[in-house]
Write a structure and sequence with these properties.
heterodimer; A: mainly alpha; two-stranded antiparallel sheet; 2 strands; 4% strand; B: two-stranded antiparallel sheet; 15 helices; 9 strands
Chain lengths: 134, 322
C-alpha cells in the first residue's frame, strides 16, 4: 500500500511542472478596452491590474467564475465573454469590472469595505488614477 | 378669509380631489413607470388591484427618526390617502393613527388577528443590547414586539436604511447595539424586503407593495433590495455623468464648476457604488441631492453610515487620515 502511495506521489510530482506551465499566473495584466468599443470616459486609460497579488489572495474561481473542473483553462481573459459595448448588460466590458457581483472588481471591493477592510474604491485614486494635472 | 371659510374651502378641495377613479388610474400608471413598465400597463395594474381584497398592513416604528414615514406622507402622485384607502388597509401606524396608548395597542392586537393575514412594515433599527431594553413601546421591547408582529406576518418590508441594515442607529459606538430587521429576526427565518435609503423614495415602497399584490415577491439583489428600484447605480443614471466622462470634476462646493453641474466625485460622491433610483424617481417630484449640489452619501448601501463616512470628501483610501 505504502509503495503505491509513493508511486502516486512521484507521478504527481512529475506532472507538477506541466501544470505550472499550463497555468502560468501573470503578475500584471493591462486591461485594454476591446477595439470596437467606444470609450465611456475620455480620460480613462488602460488599467494595470495586479493579477498576481489577487491570485495569491483569492481562489481562481472568485473572478474566473465560468471555470469548472471540466472547463479548466478555457475561460482565461474576462473579455472573452465581457466584451459588449453597453453599460447595462452583464456581458458588457464595463460591467465586468463595475458589477455588484463579487466576481467583479467593484462588487468585491464594496463587500470587503462592508467587512471593515480597505481595498481601493475611489474611481480616480483606485484603478483609474487621475491627477489634477491631467 | 376666516378660519371657518378656510376649513370649508379645504374640505371642498379634498372632496373634489377625493380618491377619484382618475386619481387611482393615474397612480397605477405612475407605479407602472416606477416598476420599469410602460405607463399603459397602469390599466392592468389597476384591474389586478381592484380584483383583490385590500391587504392589511401593520406599520411598526423602531429606533428611527420617522423620516421614512414623513417621506411617505409627502407622496403626491398618488396622495397618501389613495395609497392607504384604495391599495392597502393601513390598520396600525403610530404616526398617522388617531388612537394612542392602550387604544393603539388594542388596535394592534385586533389587526394581528385579521383572518386574512397582514403584511408587516418596520421602520427603524432594533436595539438589542441587554435584551433590547433601550427601545420599548408600551413597556414591551421592540425586539420582542417586532418578533411577535413580524413572526405572524405574510411578508415583512424593512422601510429605510435603519430597518434594512442598521443605518445611523448602528453607527459607532452604537450604544443600544441596534441592528437591522433582517439581522435581528434571522433566527425566525424572516428575510425582509429591504427598501434602504435615508429616506427611501416613497415610490419604491408603493411599487414594492403593488408588485407584491399583483405579481408576488419582486426579484431581490444580494442585499435584499428589489432590483426594480435598486438595480442600477446612482452614477450610471446621474445627470452629472457626462462631466465625469469628460474628466470634469468640481473641486470645491462654492466653485462655478459645481454650479455648472460638474461631477461631484472629488467632493465625496458615493454614487459609483450606490444602488438606488434617486436620479430617475426624484424626491417630491422635484429634485434629488446631486441635482441640488450635494454629493451622494451612499445612504442605501449596507455599510452606511460607518463604512461610507466621512462624507463630503473623496472616499477614504488605505493610509488616509480617518
Amino acid at each position: 500500500m505504502h509503495r503505491i502511495r509513493c508511486l502516486a506521489a512521484a507521478f504527481l510530482l512529475l506532472l507538477l511542472p506541466t501544470a505550472l506551465l499550463a497555468y502560468e499566473v501573470p503578475k500584471e495584466i493591462i486591461i485594454k478596452r476591446p477595439e470596437k468599443n467606444q470609450p465611456l470616459a475620455v480620460w480613462v486609460a488602460p488599467v494595470t491590474f495586479p493579477h498576481g497579488k489577487h491570485a495569491v489572495l483569492n481562489s481562481c474561481d472568485s473572478c474566473h467564475h465560468e471555470e469548472s473542473d471540466r472547463t479548466l483553462g478555457q475561460f482565461l481573459p474576462c473579455t472573452q465573454c465581457h466584451n459588449k459595448p453597453t453599460v447595462t448588460e452583464t456581458s458588457s466590458f464595463y460591467m465586468a469590472w463595475h458589477n455588484d457581483s463579487t466576481h467583479s472588481c467593484l462588487g468585491c471591493h464594496r463587500k470587503m469595505r462592508e467587512a471593515g477592510k480597505m481595498p481601493p474604491l475611489s474611481c480616480t485614486r483606485g484603478c483609474h488614477k487621475k491627477t489634477e494635472a491631467q | 378669509m376666516n378660519a371657518l371659510a378656510q376649513l370649508v374651502a379645504r374640505r371642498a378641495e379634498a372632496e373634489e380631489r377625493g380618491v377619484s377613479r382618475r386619481d387611482f388610474l393615474k397612480f397605477c400608471g405612475m407605479v407602472a413607470v416606477a416598476m420599469g413598465l410602460e405607463a399603459s400597463m397602469g390599466a392592468q395594474i389597476a384591474r389586478a388591484l381592484e380584483g383583490k381584497k385590500k391587504p392589511s398592513v401593520i406599520y411598526m416604528h423602531g429606533a428611527e427618526c420617522t423620516g421614512c414615514t414623513e417621506a411617505l406622507l409627502r407622496l403626491v402622485d398618488p396622495y397618501f390617502d389613495v395609497l392607504i384607502m384604495e391599495v392597502v388597509s393601513l390598520d396600525y401606524c403610530e404616526t398617522v393613527m388617531a388612537a394612542a396608548g392602550h387604544a393603539a395597542h388594542a388596535a394592534l392586537q385586533k389587526a394581528m388577528k385579521n383572518p386574512g393575514g397582514y403584511f408587516c412594515v418596520i421602520e427603524g433599527a432594533i436595539p438589542t443590547r441587554d435584551g433590547g431594553v433601550y427601545g420599548q413601546v408600551g413597556g414591551q421591547t421592540m425586539l420582542s414586539l417586532f418578533t411577535e408582529v413580524a413572526g405572524k406576518a405574510k411578508g415583512v418590508i424593512a422601510m429605510g436604511s435603519c430597518a434594512s441594515y442598521g443605518g445611523i442607529q448602528a453607527a459607532a459606538p452604537n450604544p443600544s447595539k441596534a441592528i437591522g430587521v433582517g439581522a435581528a429576526l434571522k433566527p425566525l427565518g424572516i428575510a425582509p424586503i429591504n427598501l434602504p435609503g435615508c429616506p427611501p423614495n416613497p415610490v419604491n415602497f408603493v411599487g414594492t407593495v403593488v408588485h407584491l399584490l399583483t405579481k408576488g415577491l419582486p426579484e431581490l439583489d444580494t442585499s435584499g433590495r428589489p432590483k426594480l428600484f435598486y438595480g442600477k447605480t446612482v452614477h450610471d443614471m446621474c445627470e452629472r455623468r457626462p462631466h465625469f466622462d469628460k474628466g470634469e470634476f468640481a473641486l470645491t462646493f462654492s466653485s462655478q464648476q459645481a454650479r455648472d453641474g460638474w461631477c461631484l466625485h472629488k467632493l465625496g460622491c458615493r454614487g459609483p457604488w450606490t444602488y438606488n433610483n434617486c436620479p430617475t424617481a426624484l424626491f417630491n417630484q422635484t429634485t434629488w441631492p446631486v441635482r441640488s449640489g450635494a454629493p451622494c452619501i451612499g445612504c442605501s448601501e449596507p455599510g452606511f453610515w460607518d463604512q461610507l463616512a466621512p462624507f463630503n470628501r473623496d472616499v477614504r483610501e488605505k493610509g488616509d487620515d480617518a
